[in-house]
Amino acid sequence: MKLTINTTIIGAIVLLVGLNITLFMHGITLSDEINYYESELTSIEQENIDYEQEIYKLESYTLTASHAAELKFGKYNEPIYGDVPAYALK
Description:
Shape: rod-shaped
Number of helices: 1
Order of helices and strands: H
Largest sheet: none
Radius of gyration: 37 Å
Mean pLDDT: 86
Distance between the termini: 123 Å
């Protein structure tokens, strides 16, 4: 059996077309995986933003409570009015 140049070229073209189809299908599979991971990344980013906001809120309350404790500020502190003679300016 003698291989001619035409048979070799046709075989190479069929091989390259098959390889191209295989790579195309693999690319589609990879794009589906990329879309999945992008959606997961978006949901994780949103969850991270929610956690950051909760942390900021807790840190703010904690900081306020620690300042109140340092200043001995309690629930039943009485206000100081300027018209009381003990505190009025001379």
